[in-house]
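User: Hi! Is it possible to get a structure for several chains at once, not just one? Here's what I have:
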Amino acid sequence: MTQRTRRLGLVVALAAGSPLLGAGRGHALPPGAPKIGMVCTPGAVTGTTHTFNLVTMAGHISTPDGNDVLMWSYANADPPDDGAFQFPGPVLCVTQGETVVVNLRNTLPEPSSIVFPGQEGVSSIGGSPGLLASEAAPNGTVAYTFAASSPGTYVYESGSNIAKQLEMGLHGALVVRPSLGANYAYDATTQFDPSREYLNLVSELDPDLHHAVETGATYDFTKLRNRYFTVNGRAFPDTIQDNGSALLPSQPYGALVRIQPNDAGTNPLPALIRMINAGALNHPYHPHGNHLRQIAQDGRLLRDPAGTSSASTERFGETIGSGQTQDYLLRWDDQDHWNPNGPPVQRLLPQPNYRSLVFKNGVTWYGGNPYLGYKGTLPTGTASLNVCGEWYFPWHSHALNEFTNFDEGFGGMATLLRVDPPGGCFTFPTSTRILVGTLNGGTVANLGLDDAKYYKVNSATTGNPRVTDWYGQFSGVPAGAANLAVTYEGNDSLGATPQTLFIWAWTANAWDQISFVPNVGTTDLTVTSATIASPASYIGRGANNGLVRVRVLTTHTGTASFVTSGDLMKLVYDAP
Amino acid sequence: MRVLAHPKTAARLALVASAAALALTCATAAAAPVSIALCATAGSITLPGGGNVPIWGFGVPATPGDCTTATASLPGPQLVVTAGDTVTIAVTNALPAGHTISFEIPGVSFVPGPTEAAVGNTVTRTFTASAGTYLYQSGGDAGRQQAMGLYGALIVRPSTAGQAYDTAASAYDVEAVLLLSQIDPNFNAAPDTFDMKSYLATYWLIDGKAFPETAPIAASAGQRVLLRYVNAGYDNTSMMLLGMHERVLARDARLLNNPFDANAETIPAGATEDAIATVPAGSPPSANGYALYNRQLHVSNGAASPGGMLTFITP
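Assistant: Yes, the chains can be modeled jointly so their relative placement is included. Here is the combined structure:
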């Protein structure tokens, strides 16, 4: 049990801002690498030659139950990694038509090599003949060259003493992008949203065999008993940490898959899921939440015999064989668009059984509300990891013994599909304050629904122009939220009424203008701001943590009093 | 229904020794009645690295029905017939006392009749052959007979020579039958009493051989190699092919509507697959050729590696 609790202690210390924070340096990611999604190691491109410098080396990974396991893996000798140990090996992304050169230096105590399954005509320079491929001796080198002729998802892995070196972890992903463009997986039928490209590389390991290597004891593969099951080198729940998380300094690749509902106008393209099984077991991978469309296996499109139309199939469970790769397109459809303000049949949607929703120790990803994009209340003592009512679905090995960390569930070969609301998270004001004018009627709740029920403010009864000036305050907006935008809908009892929207800048202690409309009138007008730059300035910290204020200033030249009626005020953001 | 007696056609049987396995070929110009006599009997094989293990296997009796003239092999003899043939297989049980055999060819529709034979008896099954790659086996003793080695490959050729099926896409230049199975010597030493919960295979075989004794597949650049996978083992087996793709044409002796290309294909336990790999030009990944191996890392003989399910296509 001491091992099991150690990691937990580290997390607490980090949260408290202890000096340990500096010790857990995250793996350096290439410039511009996303926090979520596949990360490519750049390599060096000269003309049409794409070169990578890899090093075989030993290092440790950590598991969610607090164990450390010795691995052998490939490291990137070039910046930004400079030979830092990582598991699995760097994701090598090249373009169809390039000549790929992989220089390998071997720091392991036995000869090692790389094979490139699915590539034809791999030639080698240097090294010495091995059983499956040319090998680099300990402290030696070997270079491999091949033409990246066919786009697809491939694995690269050791071809030496494989019953030991593959178990020890010598594998990585090779992605060949088509000459058609990096936003296609293969041909024109496989276009995807390049901001939603994901890799799920699955594997498994037996820590006792790794311990035998670490201690120089006898390595006997027939004694194999797998205890840890990983996606991108991490076991759940570590799989949902960001790329380059400081908590996992030698396991740089997260496996969280994030998507928004498909929309023909604003979000028409699917996500691409590249799957690789680098383990020695065949794994039944089971994505919850939607079918995935399998388009390829082993770097080859699934097509009809004439090669003219797709033979892709939709799957919610597929065994990925040892050494195989599979590619999937994923679009997530909100079939019914149910919402808590819809017709009565939708409003009656019950809460799920709370007992089914808790992950561990009273923690849940559920937001307390069954509708996408809305949060609600949860039982006392439950800690929700939910940001804004987004939904989470587990993707996992359905060999349920693999859904564990050392027999302890849930864990292991699993990640989450996170479905964000359309356009991102949205939230409504939780309070209002009138700066100039008086309350005419309605409540803050009326700003949460486009239903012709209004939050109404009387203008001042003196002065020229007459003025209403009030703000709605949002709460619970997470630090790090990006792409903030405000929607406001309302009317005024007089025509041609100029209206200015502002947002409160907490550190500058000032209102910043975000929109101006010269002529709001007696029918509802909807205004949506542009995406707000420097969003961090507008999200409160400390005592005002998570607060955002949006102000509506309405002026009307003359001495006629009027009423401002707000129907909807909505903040949209991309949660971190 | 046992209308076909062995002696009528026994003279037409020809024993052909191949690099891969003992092959029993019945070459017929047209659809014809074919009779095959087999024995299920005890024997032994030499394990890779030395040491004998007892097996139960199929063998062809020199004198049909007289199993003292048969030698058990692992796998059993490769049976080759032609599509349309009316095939009658008579299996005589010469296993140790108490082991009733049950003769099966998954995917084949037998003429109704007895399915089992007690020791000393013969079970005779008749069917009309349809092109493809099949597994034959004895399903007796709840799987223990398969684990002991009572399995083999049945190849049914179409009427067109040089093809696996009646489609041009199945044309090939070189044919290789890869019968996949495995052995736990501790089980073989005590097949009646062994606790199957502790079954742990430590020898992984292609056509009864482990690397380096596996037969290489000789094929030069441009040649089409027909790989007939027959998984007689208990494990869904993923075979990695380096340096080229194979086009998977058929599963379980039936053509796929949508053939697909693979380089790491899983052949389920009890299933067969037919794939065609065209040898590319240029040099192979190693001087040994294009490796074809068990990607689940069953490439050891006992604890000694390399070994196991590993062979090469050699240009």
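The radius of gyration of chain A is 28 Å. The longest helix of chain A spans residues 2-15.

User: Great, thank you!
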